[in-house]
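Cross-check.
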Amino acid sequence: MKSKVQIIVCFALLTILLSLSFSFATAGWSKAYGDKENEEAYSIIQTNDGGYALAGFTNSSGATGVDIWIVKTDSSGNMQWNRKIGEQYDEKANSIIQTIDGGYVIAGSPGLNDACLIKIDSSGSKKWNVTVQYKGEGKSVLQTGDGGYLLATTSCLVKISPERAFEWNVSYGGIQAAIATNDGGYAFISRDYGHYYGAPTPINLIKTDCLGNKLWCQTFEKGFATALLETADGDFVITGSISIPRDSDTGSTGNVWLAKVSSNGNLQWDQAFNLGNKVKNHVLSCSGRSVVETQDKGYIVVGTGGTLHGISCLIVKFDVSGNVEWSNTYQGPNQQNEGYCVVNTQDGGLAVAGYSGNLMIVNNSVIELNDFYLLKINGNEMGPDYLNTINIFSTGGNLYIKGALIAVIGIVIASAIFAVSKHARRKQKKLTEPASI
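Predicted model, tokenized:
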């Protein structure tokens, strides 16, 4: 009787662990795309067919120096096609949108101090390009109601007609990202380039009308702003990083920064966040790169976080009032794993793009070897309990969960118990058999 109970328990345990294993293993996935050199993804969208399009740059084989690189995947992250676009200078893409005809438009830089718009069809074939000279690199592109485009460069807003004619431009300094607003106008974040490159500067959130004329401006203390969105209630949220003095020395530490601004430009709240990881008593920096609004009216910020293992992709969840609800880092097998952009997906989850790679020393010089990186998280499995179990074990493979490892260990234990039980039954049988004379 005892042995039967042991068998039943073993099989029950095995069934439970297997079910947990399968549920964890399908919880999400990650993919990497690239060659032997350096690729970084700066923009991601979910496409009409449920797949994804990533835009950034590559300098791998076949590239003319540094080229714009576009990767199109299916809904499971399998690459369907990719396109390199480049000529003699170093080109990169900062923004990609899907157009009403099913194709794509990319904003970026063709090199030097120019901005560009590039149109490709749904298969990635180049259709046309527009260059805006001496206006800095293209940061954002929006398709306007008339079928034209608004291009935000680092120095101005440019309206381009459906026939690719320049309709108007308004000069602003240091634009980092722009969005269309529900009232038909635009909003963008900018920085003051009067400071030396790389230093924190005043952050400006500027609202314009439909012709790019300034309606109001909200200025924040020194930091870096990288992304913004218009919320469901018509207000604005911006993210980036802000420096806070360290306790241990006179330096400062970068922190994820999130701020909420009303529709007429008044600051409602702002919040800073840091993982608190330390090396030799120095708190490692974190930064926000992209933000989306969640179904509960909160916000998820994706960026980078310094950990003891290197740089990790960081995800932070804020509630509607800016309070931090949870955070987690995604550390792959490489030293550097940065999240640059995030989108809400059709199934209620998230898709994060950036890069995953290592630093290497070649001929006494430090070089980066990175790949495009795409991370998918299912919506019904987001939260502190789920996210804290995630660990990435392979570049370009699935997103494996620690729970799956636990399941495997449990299966091994259950098998061992079963084997021991079977051996005990055999031994008991021999003891109870009548001795032969």
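Residues 14-26, 387-407 have pLDDT under 50 and may be disordered. The two ends are 30 Å apart (CA to CA). Passed to J.P. for a second look.
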